[in-house]
Amino acid sequence: MNNTHFESSIGSYQLKRLPELANQPLRAWDAADEYLLQHLLDEQLLDGKKRILLINDDFGTLATCLHEHTLLHWSDSLLSQLATQQNLANNTLKPDINYIPSTEAPEGKIDLVLIKTPKTLALLEEQLIIMKPLLSKQTIIIGAGMVKYIHTSTLDLFEKVIGTTKTSLAQKKARLIFAEQDQSHTVKSKYPITFSAPEYDLTLSNHANVFAKQHLDIGARFMLEQFSKLPSGKRIVDLGCGNGVLGIVAQRAFPDSEITFLDESYMAIASAEANFHTHHPDKSANFLVSDVFSACNEKVDLILCNPPFHQQHAMGDHLAWLMFKQSYQHLPQGGELWVVANRHLAYHVKLKQLFGNCRTIGSNKKFVVLACKKPAKF
Ligand SMILES: C[S@@+](CC[C@H](N)C(=O)[O-])C[C@H]1O[C@@H](n2cnc3c(N)ncnc32)[C@H](O)[C@@H]1O
């Protein structure tokens, strides 16, 4: 099976996922993309040049197929923007496209909204609430997703925020959602939401798509329990920082260190920045939307990482592995990577291969904190 050749009702394109992996088993599109494109053609919704808002078009499949229109690509993910740019370039397409981070609202008249249902309902809710005032009664709103990810709660959300909502029949295990804009009501966002962890003297405020929105993640908590054993470092990175909890507490332990927060989620970086300033009002730090280390060229002394175990709907350790490999490149000799992970993932095997060493700093029934030191060159 060719995993990169997409034969759609609109055209044939080469499409890849990011990050690119050797023997990538997954495709950049799904049956929901196919169903949605077929529906747009069948219903003649693409006649004339349209201004289309694409939401959560993770690898740019819709952007590529709809390149003749004016496109607004709205997403929380830098990786999604990069994948879309790459797929457009690989197909030698240069559409009129505007990349809008989730932390900003799209602007101007919109004819058509195409929304792929994201992994978290909270992100969907926030996106629907932000886009609603931009739409007119004439705007056509179509959601698309795999049946297993469209729940009653998903449809209830469309109904609550947008208006009357119906679904299509399922086709190849995908479904479309049709929502009609009801302009008589608006729904207020509850994000960012705030919670406290008094035992660590923390109050964290999180945007809708941030990991562990309503509580301190138990993995992060276990990492914090080991912080008294951290080696000092002048330059510290919180890699995949989410709400920034690890970097914020590291700054307390090492007040003279410079902390850099990296995450590919716009909402994560916005939350980390706000939270850092709440806890360290007199300090500055670096906040970079970054695919692993793509936005940070410097060597750093200490990297703290609670790695991701999924990319949108796809589970796997490929992002964690990329983080470990790039961490190795960004550490000087003697610099350390600290990782918290579920024990069953057995990351110590991979880390030992990469660094030649791996210490267990702490472990409990569920988690392990591992530390690796970049060795001197022989
Ligand atoms: C398990 S969460 C940890 C969040 C936070 N450090 C904590 O401990 O609560 C993993 C984080 O990695 C981020 N992430 C996923 N892929 C990434 C990538 N390619 N580059 C940078 N960050 C990424 C996710 O957005 C998420 O915030």
UniProtKB/TrEMBL annotation:
It comes from the Bacteria. GO terms for cellular component: cytoplasm. Residues 202-370 form the Methyltransferase small domain. InterPro entries: DNA_methylase_N6_adenine_CS, RLMG, RlmG_N, RsmC/RlmG, SAM-dependent_MTases_sf, Small_mtfrase_dom. It is found in: Cytoplasm. The keyword S-adenosyl-L-methionine applies. It catalyses: guanosine(1835) in 23S rRNA + S-adenosyl-L-methionine = N(2)-methylguanosine(1835) in 23S rRNA + S-adenosyl-L-homocysteine + H(+). Its main location: cytoplasm. Residues 4-182 form the RlmG N-terminal domain. Keywords: Cytoplasm, Methyltransferase, rRNA processing, S-adenosyl-L-methionine, Transferase. The keyword rRNA processing applies. It is an enzyme of class 2 (transferase). Its EC number is 2.1.1.174. It holds the Pfam family RLMG_N. GO terms for molecular function: 23S rRNA (guanine(1835)-N(2))-methyltransferase activity; nucleic acid binding. Specifically methylates the guanine in position 1835 (m2G1835) of 23S rRNA. PANTHER family: RIBOSOMAL RNA LARGE SUBUNIT METHYLTRANSFERASE G (PTHR47816:SF5), RIBOSOMAL RNA SMALL SUBUNIT METHYLTRANSFERASE C (PTHR47816). Belongs to the methyltransferase superfamily. RlmG family. This is Ribosomal RNA large subunit methyltransferase G. The lineage of its organism: Bacteria, Pseudomonadati, Pseudomonadota, Gammaproteobacteria, Thiotrichales.
